[in-house]
Amino acid sequence: MEELFNLCWLTLQRNIRSFMFTVIILTLGMIVFMLNGLPSEYDKIYFDQFPASFRFGIATASYQVEGGASHRGKNIWDTFSHTPGNIEDGSTGDDACDSFRNYETDVKNVAALGLDFYRFSISWSRLIPTGVISEGISEAGLDYYHKLLNKLEEEKIEAMVTLYHWDLPQKLQDYGGWTNVSLAERFQEYADLCFKSFGPKVKRWITFNEPRETSLGGYEIGYMAPGYKLHGTGTYNTSYTILRAHAAAYRLYAERYRNLQFGEVGITLNCDWAQPVDNSVANRDAADRFLQWYIGIWAHPILLGDYPSVIKETVKTKTNAKGFRKSRLPEFSQDEVDYIKGTFDFLGLNSYTTRMVQFKQCQDEEDHYNCDQDLKAFADPTWPTSGSSWLRPVPWGIRKLLSQRWIKHQYPNYREIIVTENGVSDRPESVTLCDQPRVNFFQNYLNNVLMAIRIDEVNVVGYTAWSLMDNFEWAHGYTERFGLFWTSFDRPDKLRTMKSSGLFYKKIVEARGFPNKQTLLDWLDEVDTY
Ligand SMILES: *[C@@H]1O[C@H](CO)[C@@H](O)[C@H](O)[C@H]1NC(C)=O
Ligand SMILES: *[C@@H]1O[C@H](CO)[C@@H](O)[C@H](O)[C@H]1NC(C)=O
C-alpha cells in the first residue's frame, strides 16, 4: 500500500514538473505571439514585385457601359434585353453608365487608379449601323471612339480594344448571325475599318471576347443574345465561323497594318480551372475534357491547329452512336487549319472561378455540348460565394490554369498571356463603398498571378481588373455589381465613386506588386477605414 502511495506521489511530482514546464512554454509562446501578431493568411502571401515591363489595366464593354442606344444601329442585345423575361430585373443597356457622354470621366477614373491601359470594346453597330459596310458608316460613331482614344492619349493610358464583345448588329443576326459563314467576311471588313481609323492609337487589339459565351450562351443554351437553343450543334457550328473571322482579322492586320502601326492582335478566351475530385484516371481525364471543351476548342485551332483530337473523336463517336451520317462538329480543310493556326501575338485570358470535376456518363437523350463531355462539374460547398451564382472565389485556381498544370503545358508556343478580365460581383442592398470581399479577391488572385510568373515561370505580361465601374451585367441587368467604382444608376449623370477595392488596386499598381507584409497590412488598414 505504502509502495503504491509512494509511486503515485512520485508520478504526481513528475507530472507537476511537466505541468509547470508546459505553463512556462505556453507563456513564452504567448509573449512571442503578442510581439509578432497573429500568424494568419498573410503569411501565405508571396511578397515580390511583378516584372518591370508588367502592365496593369481595367476593362469595360460597349453594351455594358455606353448607353447612347438611340445614336447607333440596333444590335442583338437591344433585341434580347427588350424582350420581356430575358433580363432578371427587366432592365436594358439603353442608358447603362452613359459612357457615351461620360467617357472623359471614365478616362479620368482609369488615370486615378494609376493604370497603364484601358480595355474597352467598340460597338460594331455604332460604326456600321447595319453591320454591312457597303450599307454605310456612321461618322458620329467614328467620332465617339476618336474622342475616347484622344482622351486616353492625353492621360498617357494605352488602349486595348476589343472588336467584338457580344453586340452583333441586328441586321447580321437576321442573316443567321454566327451560323452564317459569310459573317467572317463582314467581321473582316469591320476590323479593317477599325484598324484603318483607330490603329495608330491602339497598342493591342482583341478580336473576340469569350467566344465560348457567344456560342454556348447565345446559340446552344440561349441565356444570352440571340437566345438560340441549337442543342448539340450551336457551339460547334458557330465556333467554325468565329475562328475564321478571328483569323481573317488577324491576317489582315499582319499583312496591311502591323508595319505601320506596330500593334499586336490576339483573342480573349475565358476559362474556369477544373480540379479533379481525386487522383483517379477517370476523374483526371474528365477534368481535362472540361478544359478542352471550355478553352481548347478555341485555343487549339489558333495555337496548334485544328480542334483538339479528343473533341473530334468524341463528337464523331457520339454522333455515330445516334445514327447520324455526319459529325455535328464542322471539319476544317487543311487550308483552313493553316489559315487559323498561329493567328495570335498574345493570348488573352479571362478567369474568375474554379469547378470540381468528376467523371459521369451523360444519359441525356438529346445531343448537347455539355453531354458530350461525360462529366459532372460543381462548386465545393466550402468555397465562398459572391453576387453571381457561377462565381465562387478560388484564388489558387487561376495559378493552376496558367501554369504547367495546364495552359503552359498544353500550349508551349503561347508567347505572352494577358489576364484580360478578373474580378468579383456582389449584390448590395444599398450604397456600399467598403467592399471588403472584393479587396480580398484582388489581393489573393493577383498574388496567385504573381506566383504563376515568379515561381511557375509563366510569361504573363499584363493583368486587367473587371470592371472599371458597376454596369449592365447581361442577363442579370443591374442586380450584380462588379465595379471598382460604384455607379449611381438612379442619377441622371450616373455618378461614379471609387470603392475600397479601387483604392486597394491603386496601391498594388503603385508598388508594382506586394512589397512586404507590413505594407500590405497598412494598405488594408487604410482601405478598411476608407
Ligand atoms: C448570310 O449573310 C449574308 C450577308 O453576309 C447574306 O447576304 C445571306 O443572305 C445570308 N445567308 C442566309 C442564309 O441568310
Ligand atoms: C451552321 O448551320 C447553318 C444553319 O443550319 C448551316 O447553313 C451552316 O452550314 C452550318 N455551318 C457549319 C460550319 O457547319
Automatic annotation (TrEMBL):
TM helices/strands, residue ranges:
19-38
Q: Does the keyword Nucleotide-binding apply?
A: no
EC numbers listed for it are 3.2.1.21, 3.2.1.45, 3.2.1.46
Ordered alphabetically, the record's keywords are: Glycosidase, Hydrolase, Membrane, Transmembrane, Transmembrane helix
Q: State the active site.
A: 421 (nucleophile)
PROSITE patterns attached to this UniProt entry = GLYCOSYL_HYDROL_F1_1 (PS00572), GLYCOSYL_HYDROL_F1_2 (PS00653)
The record's comment on protein family reads: Belongs to the glycosyl hydrolase 1 family. Klotho subfamily.
Superkingdom of the organism of origin: Eukaryota
Protein name (database record): Cytosolic beta-glucosidase
Instruction: Report a single Gene Ontology molecular function.
Output: beta-glucosidase activity
Q: Does the keyword Chaperone apply?
A: no
Pfam families referenced in this protein's UniProt entry, alphabetically: Glyco_hydro_1
Which GO terms are recorded in the biological process aspect for this UniProt protein?
carbohydrate catabolic process
Catalysis performed (reactions): a beta-D-xylosyl-(1<->1')-N-acylsphing-4-enine + cholesterol = cholesteryl 3-beta-D-xyloside + an N-acylsphing-4-enine; beta-D-glucosyl-(1<->1)-sphing-4-enine + H2O = sphing-4-enine + D-glucose; a beta-D-glucosyl-(1<->1')-N-acylsphing-4-enine + H2O = an N-acylsphing-4-enine + D-glucose; beta-D-galactosyl-(1<->1')-N-octadecanoylsphing-4-enine + H2O = N-octadecanoylsphing-4-enine + D-galactose
